[in-house]
Amino acid sequence: MKYIRPYMKWFIIGPVCMIVEVIGEVLMPKLLAGVINAGNAGTLTVGSSIGTALEMILIALLMMAGGVGGCYFATKASVNFAGDIRDDLYRKIQGFSFANIDRFSTGSLVTRVTNDVTQVQNFVAMLMRMALRAPGMMIGGLIMAIRIRPSLATVFLVSVPLLLVTVGFIILTGFPRFKKVQTRVDGLNSTVQENITNVRVVKSFVREKFEKSKFAKANGDLKDSAMSAMRVVIFMSPVTTFFMYATIIAVIWFGHGIVLDGGMAVGDLSAFVNYVSQILVSLVMVTFLLMFSSRALASGKRILEVLEEESDLTDDNAAHKDLTVKEGRIEFRNVSFRYYKNSADKVLDNIDLTIEPRSTVGIIGSTGCGKSTLVSMIPRLYDPDEGEVLIDGVNVKDYSLYNLREGVGMVLQKNVLFSGTIEENLRWGDEDATDDEVTAAADAAQADKFISTFKEGYQTELDKGGTNVSGGQRQRLCIARALLKKPKVLILDDSTSAVDTATEAQIRRMFNDELKDSTKIIIAQRISSVMDSDVIIVMNDGCITGMGTHEMLLKTNTEYQEIYESQTGKKEA
Fold first, then answer.
1. d(Cα 536, Cα 376) in Å, to the nearest integer?
2. Which of 187, 347, 423, 500 could make a disulfide contact with 458, Cβ separation 3.0–4.6 Å?
3. Contact 53, 91 (CB under 8 A)
4. Quick one: CA torsion of 505, 508, 509, 514, rounded to 10 degrees?
5. What are the tens digits of pLDDT across the range 256-291?
6. Residue 419, Cβ neighbours under 10 Å: how many?
7. pTM of the predicted model, to two decimals?
8. Whole-number Å distance between alpha carbons of 367 and 385
């Protein structure tokens, strides 16, 4: 009702228009029967036949108006109905945490926002066109048939129950198959999305053949599931046609004797046969409506799963929603985290850490030791399973998500740019920034030089993901975007790995000059990226194993010494 209520007038007018068409369909056989009966009795005149013809033309025009109006309002209502659902789905997904998205998978969410909503939209349109038309035709046809010959109408007592039982069995068989089809669509979408997103990796490893076979399997699974479901639909048509013609044959068989005995006029038998067709056609409409409802129901349940999913990260209970990040002092108190809640292995294990405001902190350690997960707790991309994270002495859960993330700039390990111009991408940091501020941020990130070499400069169009610039250029654009935000906390998650050491050194100097009032956290694999930091944190297996300056760690921390030796070839004396 939430999605129907705004368009209630269309949901009412559409079916009412279809009723006009139904009334015409019920009247037409009666008018035709009158002409046949008059012609058979020899009482038909030119005047009466012209009058009846004009009546039928008028009714046909009204039927046409009702049919067109019904289709128009059904389409208008269903399209808007689906548009609102799609909008709510997208808004809901935007509020999901990483964990929520992982539970559904990206491909499945795409299918639910597109294909599943379309299935429901088509069903609503069909429902509006048939919900009153089908029962209206059936009831009107039954009334007219009984009025013509009650005894002959008893044939429906046999055919209709048999048809309903058969159709019910077919629908119960079809429902789980349609649900399986939507799951297979998920699988196909995920395969296509993964392949296209990572097409450069596929080509560089010459894995086209493998990806083709992978797609062929997903496509074959969908095809088999679709054929399995459609066999049910295909079987529906001959079954309903059989019952329709069997009933018509029975009516003609019993009716012709009544006509020969003089108990019924030929025109009335013709009208009765027409009403039989109308009644059974209306039942066929209902059966197809029910069949499509099984697929729409499967899609509807999948849509509801998303709409009813509770986000792991909300600020509903935030105690200080108006509070903003002012200093940038960060504390981790006994923080532990698992990606899989039932897992015994912790990604972070009992982390205690304080980062002073306006300091530069480097984090280094082996791959998979929890560095990225640790800093993801600061802007609440994840919440800890145990312990708490505080900024300026306030638990991050007590900030509004907007204010918290506005105060934290983050350049992720995977640098992502969006389709649009370079300027539009940079303005993600601050859409109200002046042109001079945009240029200054790009210059600070050492990006202005290469942007200036492009013919269109800052108006150069980027492909989706920024695939038409190099990895190093992409990293510098992402850094510039974060700088434009002017955050109190700036996190760089291995975001200078694709730039040369000279450029990286210039970026680090810029941090000291331009971001004096910001807390800077730099995750890196290269010691040269963090050695000038105020504090360097060494991590291993989700734990902090060392903390101090570069000189201190070279003397006291074995892991840091090993990293230093492996990268420089020197042994610290």
1. 18
2. 423
3. no
4. 150
5. 888 887 778 888 888 888 888 888 788 778 777 877
6. 13
7. 0.70
8. 22
